[in-house]
Design goal:
The chain is an alpha+beta fold. The chain is built from three helices and four strands, in the order βαβαββα. The chain has a four-stranded mixed β-sheet with strand order 2-1-3-4, with helices on one face. The longest helix has 17 residues. It is globular, with a radius of gyration of 12 Å. The mean pLDDT is 95.
């Protein structure tokens, strides 16, 4: 199954930890999966997202950055 939610972040990022907690909770409740990408492992991702992490994508489109709004994420996954 392909993950509908992708979290771009980096280890040691407290905002990424907060975002992950929301994403894990929402995905578990809705039966969805998510993947995580460490932007430090890819120079292009680091250049693109370095100042905005965490960045969340839903179904391949950018959804949020810095914080994940739980209600908004639920609505996006309900579509």
């Amino acid at each position: 199954m392909t993950a509908r939610v992708t979290l771009y972040g980096r280890p040691g990022c407290h905002l990424c930890d907060d975002a992950r907690a929301v994403i894990e909770r929402v995905c578990a409740e809705l039966g969805e999966s998510f993947s995580e990408v460490d932007i430090d492992s890819d120079a292009a991702l680091l250049d693109r997202f370095g100042e905005e992490i965490p960045v969340t994508f839903v179904d391949g489109r950018q959804h949020d950055f810095w914080r994940v709004d739980e209600a908004r994420l639920r609505a996006a996954l309900a579509r």
